Amino acid sequence: MATVALNPVAAEEKLGKLRSAVAQLDQISENEKNGFISLVARYLSGEAEQIEWSKIQTPTDEVVVPYEALAPPPEDLEATKKLLDKLAVLKLNGGLGTTMGCTGPKSVIEVRNGFTFLDLIVIQIESLNKKYGCNVPLLLMNSFNTHDDTLKIVERYANSNIEIHTFNQSQYPRLVVDDFIPLPSKGKVGKDGWYPPGHGDVFPSLMNSGKLEALLSKGKEYVFIANSDNLGAIVDLKILNHLINNQNEYCMEVTPKTLADVKGGTLISYEGRLQLLEIAQVPDAHVNEFKSIEKFKIFNTNNLWVNLKAIKRLEVDGVKVLQLETAAGAAIRFFDNAIGVNVPRSRFLPVKATSDLLLVQSDLYTLVDGFVIRNKARTNPSNPTIELGPEFKKVGDFLKRFKSIPSIVELDSLKVSGDVWFGARVVLKGKVVIAAKPGVKLEIPDGVVLENKEINSPEDI
Questions:
Q1: Which residues fall in the annotated binding site?
Q2: Which has the closest alpha carbon to 251: 345, 331, 312?
């Protein structure tokens, strides 16, 4: 969170005015009002997490544990059931599909074989519950943007072998910069006057909604938190087993950084504790160093495992420190015995754009019991890089332009621009660039194999 340092008198004057205005907003709870005022107070005070660069240390394998070093989980069915009965899964479900040209929650975009993100999540947890006879519940943290739609969608899982609970994250008013008055106070009705304050809000929202207490009363000990659009974020018994045996209050999954991830937050050791370092905290002089994959080799996948009693302790016992964190990963520094686990890249498979959709709908992956499994025929551990032009940005347009998704098992990179249309059974290998000339429709015929080619016109095929 960026901050601005005002002198204390000016800051208090602005805050006093804001408190009065926020007190009149009857659309939100007292907890939300307090959380919002705290966040603004921190912004005005300039109290950012200033990092002294010279104090940064690379975490050891003891605190960022290599996944391969984790002990195997118990093979006994009953022991596995006991482990899983201590777990709840929470998916962050506040985002809309607007950037991909869809209406409603992003989690209802069809990913593969007609299944949405949410379908796959439900199938995965259902198959766990069935296989081990356990009861892993699913919680969906919605925003005011996705809440109503999600409630309707969840009804279709009424007969599933899974408990589904929904709750809303906080709703904060947007501020008018000039006079520091909340937009809703100026007569701005409707959703435009409000915003959901980042996924760091998961901890206070769990508490304020009563869901935290409900989970604890059912004997749950850990919650696995992940973005609903990360297809790689599945329950992992090795990690859960490790956390319970070692009494780690918090675990962040990190994975090796590639050039595509240079802006992602990383874990550092700082003054004896693990801490998330994000690009906004980095002094300008060190930004290139931060982006380098030599010094900072890992980044945060936002797959988090957190002890429920520890959340309650930090939320209830006075300090409410978690209220101020706008990213859930930033809270790692408040938990005792916190660790990172350096996981395989397969646990980070987000779908942020149609280029990602092309990957997961292709023969690079198959679907088994709701799990997206990578094709062993691909020998390169990295996925191909895919760049699609604006003509492919919306899911509807993307689907229209492919008669069927090409085979990309042997593809290194694909760059497509202009008015390009793909036939059925197309095979892409090596480095392929397809650039239609302005005003020209370029059709790739059925069954064609393109290997290390640049295509600008039909004659190049």
A1: 106, 169, 198-199, 229, 352
A2: 331
